[in-house]
Design a protein that fits this description.
Two copies of one chain form a homodimer. Chain A has 14 helices and 13 strands. Chain A is an alpha/beta fold and about 400 residues long.
Chain lengths: ~400, ~400
């Protein structure tokens, strides 16, 4: 029993991640595998850490990619910072806040939540009122991948300082596409994924921990519940000692190295502007078509746009049409938005004029097929926003 | 601040993994990334599961690669099968048994161990005597990667049946190089890694769980402590429902697909024989040089050979010499064998006559440089064993 070799089709990736992977990242991924303790690989690791620090906006020593996807990064931050019985407060306004609360519960924490409607950012005043009761760790989702909402971190960082709590942040869909600035805000633990605005294949989760977080880690009363994700052990491999912990995913780290090189070659400010400009253009185009973007303009996450599926339109059929007719992937709704919305990603290499243009044109085609006639000229609206004649 | 692109050197990988990766596996790794819910990718997942079942020797529904390295597979099996307060018995005769015990403790188990000297297999009679007291889970290391010892699973499977316990097995360095035969033995949970005898880059951990193990999982009194590794959730993505859990490491799964294809194209019996023959030839050659192999002949793990460093020889200098002069990686000792032994891997694509020949010749060169004169003709001894004139 055997199968033919894998031959994946050519796709344009505009879902909630993975995003389109640049050719040089795929080439780096397939560079010859070397040992995880090879001196040549140890240099690659050091360079990856250095570049990650720049993208996170931090000087944190403990900055590196975890050997798992973004959810492994979430679990890493939680299980390392939370001891059984710790009080944890989580802001919940989408799937990933819900998940954070669940992961913290499983880590033995007493978890409370502050909720906001899905599609809205977390309200700092609501959060502060509850946080004042005193918590060990506060958790906030910077970029809610299920709704396309960006939450301003500054007020939450202030609340963490006021209440002497650690601040843990989900930056899965912001890192590399929206400023994270861990040190400027004073974030204590931040995790992300490689397959979003870094445009590397999925499989690694960059994280960074502040010195305050490391102190808590070093003075734990109980061992970290996860051995695989125990940063006390892992730091000895990524740090000076090079003590074997687990076999690092060598080729994935090559790919991340190349992806980070491309991010820094472009320049962070330029990259953030590119994400903003193309997200704005996409929004203008979608609204010109008569579609509704449920997230208020000031809270939109540039790398991910939430679009309400119009009444009478089968949202899954539209996605199928885009995939089959155009090889274009967009995402469906998640959680309570399942069946009701689309999520359109403009992340990393997928945040280009080509992507915006194809998406608007293909979506109009798919909506026509569903009997929904787009109202205005989406492409003209997008072109105007991008300053094209 | 930026760095030049990654340019890893060409190595011959004969350490404890990663092993040499075939060109077609590296090509598959760099195939275009598609979405983790793309129909084209879902077929790849199904084919990977089907091929993994064949290599594990099982019909288990719950068979798939976890999104982490081998240690993530260990933790997956433990945290899913163990509830806080469960009694777990672990056979310890090397680093990986020690690690299993630690992971089980962190999962909340009451752990006891049965020890055997490092370099010797676990004694089933010793194990049975303790196991009779009654345990929920018994853990055995099939292929101890720190010592190169292969343990016959049949008597331990019998003990598990006699005592009505689940049997959890580390097959990291056996899967694809030595028969595992999960169903024939009646193993309940087995984990492995991709970077050993499957000759795929590191980053995934194939696992399989029996129906008995699934029943325990389904009837847990408490949630699995790890959300990322919770098989109740993950099975819904890899199984029929395709419910999103985490973003699968798409490209790594392409690579595993190709690696498994190559395993099955060669044929399992042929592959096991190739590992045995080349390990025997390597052992003859090493012994002809006057080197000591601490593991008794009947207990040697073909994919990994433990070699004692002779008195007065700096084992790290020998490894450095091999790497610098020949681009050849072998492993050092781990745990209590650190500084005292080498571990030479003949895994997957690295189990060839070319590898054995280069290793013996290069090792003789390195030993000469250390003032140790190899006794006999290693290459002649290896050639004779391989039936070469």
């Amino acid at each position: 029993m055997t199968f033919p070799p894998v031959a994946p089709p050519s796709r344009v990736l505009m879902g909630p991640g993975p995003s389109d992977v640049p050719p040089s990242v795929l080439r780096a991924l397939s560079a010859p595998t070397v040992g995880h303790l090879d001196p040549a690989f140890l240099s690659v690791m050091d360079e990856v850490r250095e570049m990650l620090r720049t993208v996170f906006g931090t000087a944190n020593e403990l900055t590196m990619p975890m050997s798992g996807t973004g959810s492994a990064g979430m679990e890493t931050c939680v299980v390392n910072l939370v001891e059984p019985g710790d009080r944890v407060l989580v802001g919940v306004h989408g799937v990933f806040g819900t998940r954070l609360a669940e992961v913290a519960r499983r880590a033995g924490a007493e978890v409370e939540t502050v909720e906001a409607p899905w599609g809205r950012p977390l309200d700092p005043d609501d959060f502060r009122r509850v946080a004042k009761a005193g918590y060990d760790v506060l958790c906030v989702v910077h970029a809610e991948t299920s709704t396309g909402v960006l939450t301003d971190l500054a007020p939450f960082a202030a609340i963490a300082r006021e209440t002497d709590a650690l601040l843990l942040v989900d930056a899965v869909t912001s890192l590399g596409g929206v400023p994270v600035e861990a040190d400027r805000h004073g974030l204590d633990a931040v995790y992300s994924g490689t397959q979003k605005c870094l445009s590397c294949p999925p499989g690694l989760s960059p994280i960074t921990l502040s010195d305050r977080a490391r102190q808590k880690l070093a003075s734990r009363r109980s061992p970290v519940r996860s051995w695989y994700l125990d940063l006390n052990l892992i730091a000895r491999y990524w740090g000076g000692e090079r003590a074997y912990h687990h076999t690092a995913p060598v080729n994935m780290i090559y790919a991340l190295h190349e992806a980070l090189r491309l991010v820094l070659d472009e320049g962070l400010e330029q990259r953030y502007r590119r994400h903003r400009d193309h997200a704005d253009a996409l929004a203008r185009g979608l609204e010109a078509m008569g579609l509704v973007l449920p997230v208020p303009e000031g809270s939109r996450l540039p790398p991910l746009t939430l679009v309400q599926a119009p009444d009478g339109v089968d949202e899954a059929a539209v996605r199928r049409h885009l995939l089959e007719q155009f090889g274009l992937e967009i995402g469906g709704g998640l959680g309570e938005l399942k069946g009701k919305a689309w999520r359109i990603g403009l992340m990393g290499s997928s945040a280009t004029t080509r992507h915006v243009t194809l998406c608007l044109a293909a979506l109009a085609d798919a909506l026509h097929a569903q009997g929904f006639t787009p109202r205005g000229d989406a492409l003209a609206a997008a072109r105007a926003r991008l300053g094209r004649k």
